[in-house]
Amino acid sequence: MQIALAPMEGLVDNILRDVLTRVGGIDWCVTEFIRVTERLLTASHFHKLAPELLTESRTAAQVPMRVQLLGSDPQCLAENAAFACELGAPVIDLNFGCPAKTVNRSRGGAVLLKEPELLNRILVEVRRAVPAHIPVTAKMRLGYDSPDGAMDCARALADGGAGLIVVHARTKTDGYKPPAHWEWVARVQQVVRVPVFANGEIWSVEDWRRCREISGAEHFMLGRGLVSRPDLARQIVAASSGEDIVEMTWVELQPLLREFWRQARNKLAPRYAPGRLKQWVAMLTRNYPEAKVLFDQLRRETDCEQIDALLVQELLSV
Fold it and tell me: What is the per-residue pLDDT across 212-265, written as a single tens digit (0 to 9) for each?
């Protein structure tokens, strides 16, 4: 079994990748999508979203990172994929799952699921451009507004050279509304010979067990469930091997929050850093009542030094 940390634009940046992979249980992670249009991107552009390229494409916890590209031009994607490999990308992942309207209007993400022939051309060109020893993978949803074409899309990706496919078990129109249709993951796996990862609505070990049973999947990608429960991957690994599950406490989470905030202050402008911390704490409220208290304290705070004091107070109070 492999467990991957999902790429999520505006949420799972290099800071959160670093912090979450320290907890354990994650086999690999993926960058936020790097948008490719009509030109070859610069090294600095790649390094901005994937600074791990400068550290052998691994987080501080030595978890491998993959570079994800988003676009619709096969040749341009191929050229940028080849360049990313020159910069050290160990795997190239292609995004056919983003549901954002702005992305879809620019012919990126899930809208391309309407064109399985184009999916195939993209995979063929990228696979041809990337060195043979570097895998090319893909992430897809079940379709744009219907899962009826999911099998065609999966076959197009696998036939084009995708070494594995992550299936977010919802359509673009579904967005992030529950439920995730895990039974479609099983159907996809029946028509392709590459590994298929199940993704969507795995918030707990119980969800993972149900997903495994319904989808038949052996591998999983965790997104919001892992962000809101940082030890979810570690819990799943324990459950899969029959070990006792020991949940991370709020006290144990404190050093991660402090490290996240330290990096946010160092890497982001002062007007953006508080928002990033609030975003993560808000998601933690799903599983930690203490996070709700902290979030209420942070909600109106914009001064970084005041937030420093709040976090020190929180650390001393637990």
Answer: 999 999 999 999 999 999 999 999 999 999 999 999 999 999 999 999 999 999
Statement to judge: residues 44 and 128 lie in one domain: yes
Q: How far apart are CA 124 and CA 285, in angstroms?
A: 43
**Active site includes 98?**
yes
Pair (234, 255) in one structural domain: no
What is the distance in angstroms between the CA of the first residue and the CA of the last residue of the chain?
A: 35
Domain boundary (240, 261, 276) is at 240
Do residues 129 and 272 both lie within one domain?
no
Tell me the pTM.
Answer: 0.95
Q: Annotated catalytic residue: which of 76, 85, 98, 153? A: 98
- Cα–Cα dist 232/294, whole Å: 21
For residue 27 the two structure tokens come to 């086999």
Q: Which domain holds residue 275?
A: 250-317
